[in-house]
Each structure stands twice: as C-alpha cells, then as structure tokens.
Design goal:
The complex is a heterodimer of chains A (about 375) and B (about 270).
Chain A: E1 5-14, E2 17-27, E3 32-36, H1 43-50, E4 58-63, E5 66-67, H2 73-80, E6 83-86, H3 98-109, H4 114-127, H5 143-155, E7 161-165, H6 173-190, E8 193-197, H7 201-206, E9 210-215, E10 218-224, H8 225-229, H9 234-241, H10 256-269, H11 302-314, H12 320-329, H13 332-340
Parallel strand pairs in A: 3-8, 3-9, 6-7, 7-8
Antiparallel strand pairs in A: 1-2, 1-4, 4-5, 9-10
Chain B: H1 21-39, H2 47-87, H3 93-131, H4 134-140, H5 145-183, H6 188-193, H7 195-198, H8 201-227, H9 232-265
Helix pairs in contact in B: 1-5, 2-3, 2-5, 3-5, 3-8, 3-9, 5-8, 8-9
Chain lengths: ~375, ~270
Amino acid sequence: MGVAVQVEGLTKSFGSQNIWSDVTLTLPPGEISVLLGPSGTGKSVFLKSLVGLLKPEKGSIILSDADIVTCSEAKLYEIRRLFGVLFQDGALFGSMNLFDNVAFPLREHTKKSETEIRRIVLEKMDMVGLAGAEGKLPGEISGGMRKRAGLARALVLDPEIILFDEPDSGLDPVRVAYLNQLIVDLNAQIDATFLIVTHDIGTARTVPDNLGLLYRKHLAMFGPREQLLTSQEPVVQQFLNGRREGPIGMSEEKDVAQVEAEMAALAARGGDQHNGVGPKGATGGDAVPPQLEPSPGLPERRAVRRRQERVARMLHTFDPATAAAIRESLPPDLLARADAGVFASSPDVAGRHRSPDEPPTSVLPGPRGQW
Amino acid sequence: MSAGDEPKAPGLLDGKLSPTRPLRASGNLFAFALDVARALPRRPFQVREFVQQTWFVASVTILPTALVAIPFGAVIALQLGSLTRQLGAQSFTGSASVLAVLREASPIVTALLIAGAGGSAICADLGARKIRDEIDAMEVLGISPIQRLVVPRVLAAMLVAVLLNGLVSVVGVAGGYFFNVVLQGGTPGAYLASFGALAQVEDFWSGEIKALVFGLIAGIVASYKGLNAGGGPKGVGDAVNQSVVITFLLLFAVNFVMTAVYFQLVPPKGA
C-alpha cells in the first residue's frame, strides 16, 4: 500500500513573489488524487516541493515519519526513492536510448544482474505499451511515447508515491484516454499513492478519488471527488465546466459586478446544464460521472474500499448534495454503519484534511474588489 | 534570508540592487565547489562517465590547443629573436623561449582553451539537461547530479588541462625552434644547448600545477553555471557566456597569484 503524504501549512515564494500559502492537504494512501488549477498557480511548483526539489519557506510535508521540508540532504535522497515522478516531457536522458533510460535507476541503486535488469525493464516497457522501442533515442520518438517511457522509468523502482505533471499535455484525446486507463490500471496493480496535476477536466472527473483546486495562491478546496464535482463554489464550478463566466479571468481576477453579470447571463441561458460542452473534456452540469474501472482481468483497486470507509466516516460533514452523491457510491454495509453513527466518534481516522470539527474548506476570500 | 511572514510589496530594488548580491553569487559558487569536494570521495566513483568526459573534453580541446600553441610559440620566438639580437644575447634565445613557453604561455593557452572550449561545452551540456528537466529527474531518482555528473567532469577537465599543458609546452617549444632556426637563421646547436641555461624543471611543474588548478576552476564554474541555467534555451546561452567570462577572469587572476607565489618559492636560476 502506498504511503500517505501530509502537507501542512505549506507556503512557497520566489523572492518577494508569493506562489501559494498555507496549503494543507493529505494524500490518502493508495488513492488517486488530482490537483487542478488555472495556469500559473504553481501546481508544478507544488509537485517539485513534494519531492524536495524546491524548499518551501513554511509548513511541513510529512511522509513515512520524515519531513521533506526540513530533513537532511542524505535523508532526502533516501526518501526520494519512494517517489516516481513523471515530468511533463518525460525528462528522459537525451544521450541514452529508452532501455538505458528505464534501466538507469536500477543500475544506479541496485546490484541486480544485467539479465534481471533486462527482465524488469522489458516488463515495465511492456506495461506502458512500449515493447519493441527499447533501442530508440528520446529524440526519435513522439511526445506520447516519451511520456510513457518516462512513466516506465518512474515505475521501475516500485515507488510508493507517483506524481504526474500534466500527463495529458500534448496528447490527443484517444491517447489521453489510454493513459488515464493506464493510470487506473497501475493503481490497481501496485496500490501506490497517485497525484496528478492536470488541466484536463475529463481526467479530473473520471480518474481520481480526490480532487483539489489551487486558485489565487491558496488551495481553494481539496476533498473526495464528489465534494468538488457537486460543489456550489463559483471557482470550482467555473473550472470544472471550463467556461468563461465566473471569477477566474484571462490574466487577472474580474471585478465582482462583472462576475455577477456573467453569472446572471449564464443562469438565463439555463445554467451549466445548457451551456454546452467546454474545452478539455469539460461538460455541463454537476453530475458525478462514474469513475474509471481497472481493465478486466486486473485486481480490484484496494484503495476503493479504503476510500469508501474513509468517506463514510466523514459523510455527515458534507453538504447535502455531496453527501447524496457519496451515498450513491457507498456499499450498503458502510452506508448502514454511517447512518448508525458508528463512524462519527473517530474523526482522526478519517484523514486529517477534513476532520468533522473543521469548518468546510470551501471558504474563499472575496475577489479583490470587495476588500 | 527568510521570506518574511508578510509578502513584501514588489519594489524597484527587489534585492536586485542589493550591495551583497555579488557576494551571494560568489558565495554560492564557493558552496558549490565545497559540495563537489564533499561528493568527490563518495562511492561509487563514476569511472565510465569520467572516461567519457575526459575523451569528450580532450576531443574538443586538443586540436584548437595545438593550433593556438604553434603561432603562440612562433610569436614568442619572433619577439625574442629580435630582442636578443638587440641585446646581443642570441645565445640565450632558446633558453628564454623555453622559459616563456613553459612558465606563462602554456598555462595561459591551456586556460583559454580549457575555459573557452572545454568549459563552454560542459556548461552547454549540463544547461541543456537542466532545462529539459533531466537534472530534476535525476535528483528525483535519488541520484545526486553533483556526484554523478559534476565530479567526473571536474576531474576530466583537470586531467585534460594537465595533458594539454604538456602538449602546449611541446608544440610551443617546437614551434619556437622552427621559427628561430628555420626562419630567423638561428643556430640549432645554440638554441638547444641554451635550454637549460635559464629554465629549470620546476618551471615545468609550476605550469602543470597551474593547469591542474585551471582545469579545476573551469570545471567547477562551467558545472555551476550549467546546473543553474534557467529560462529556456536563452538561459543556456547566457549561462555558457557567463561561464566563459567568469572562468577567464578567475583564471587570469589565479595565474597572477600563482606566478607570484612561484617566484617566492622557487628562486630563478642563478639569482
């Protein structure tokens, strides 16, 4: 089972420019989480902070009893072996062919024999559908292949946490669908903790167990997928529907009056349900589409049951729409226990990011014009 | 400096005009050098990378070095040829030429080439890797780029610099001989016989030690600049440019200091 990552009060600035502050969330072990956010809100910076490539000024990132923000360089290198990271362009080593790229971590970190390395590498290459391309150089293959090769390299040390930096960028929708299926299949097979940073709403709606949205230098919301998909929060709704109407502007925030006018116009057209299809897989409405299942023949995702128990514990903390959506996803036994109040007394087990005593996370400061 | 609790208003200065800024840059470079020194003894030593890099640096520097060394030796020979004739000390032409080549010309030529050809190639290579996220990927895979990439490169630059210095010495002296004897009508016997009159073996060693230090500095500066490249392809170009300029400045300054120290340690012959 993958490890949990607990992020508390994380703040990062470059010089005097604040990127985001006070980000608090927990990536539940073995679950798939997606982090959304408008371009330039520091999603990649967040990923790099998670693996210790950037040092946040404040806060902590705890995983397996170590704090990545403050731990020593030696410890950091040790912890990083728990991670597999898929960079945007794969970040393959340009001077090596795909086989050597994927074999690189094994050769550096293990004393495995060349035959065993070969077996593992070919297995991972096969897993990502690159069998037969071992001899190619990164410069000779397409962006999608580079991404998959980068994924194979990230998988080769059997990581506990896998981070994806925009796995869909530069890919056509069919390949994105395949890649998403691959991500779910991988999760079913290795039960590691996944975090995907993306702009693709289709991915965000169907792949993850948890969704988060970074907006205006804060984590606007993070929680079970149902919580964001049914959210009435204007920013979340705007982003998930991929529409212009709402607080997010092209380059800066809009003033309140303009947002209100836009929202009124949208409502007059019939709201999101009648707004048509947005870009990047954004569809109208707040329906919670079914989650992607692992391919037939693969084991069930063990995270599913863990997550069901987790959200059942938190059930009474959600607003009615979210709770209703979650109830639909829960099996009868958990539902019965949740209704009987069995879970309510043990808030800590529910994961720290949403303990019942806390107010709902979806409290945003108003747009600048209101202050 | 801790980024304060309150996000500071972006101002004109923003730290850019702070008087301590150049200090911080040189401090970072020095800290980087210490990191490299600390990673030096760490196992496993990257033999393969070291051999590859040595070959790479040698292949980009040997030919230009030889081509620079010949005219350099010739210029010295020409200058000395007329100077010694004016002074009436033709018999010392060979000796003075060897002295000039061994003590100064060859470390300087080595410095120029190791910084201009070797260092820029190293910096461009690492910079390109940096902006393609390869360095980050390597760190995430739990491998220290300093140990895996920088240490072999710095050692390679040092080794090649020492070898280049030998090459320049030979080519320079041979070039001087050719110009003096063949073109200026000097006597071969006198030229060769006077070799040992002023020059001594320590001159050669001082040249080699200088070359070793030059290789070290060029390797460190190039790696530092390469690993800190940012801002896309232009950033790499800037990094290469800065790396060459900084290396030149450092090498000439260090050359001066080392020469001064050398004259204190090794008294000139007959003095």
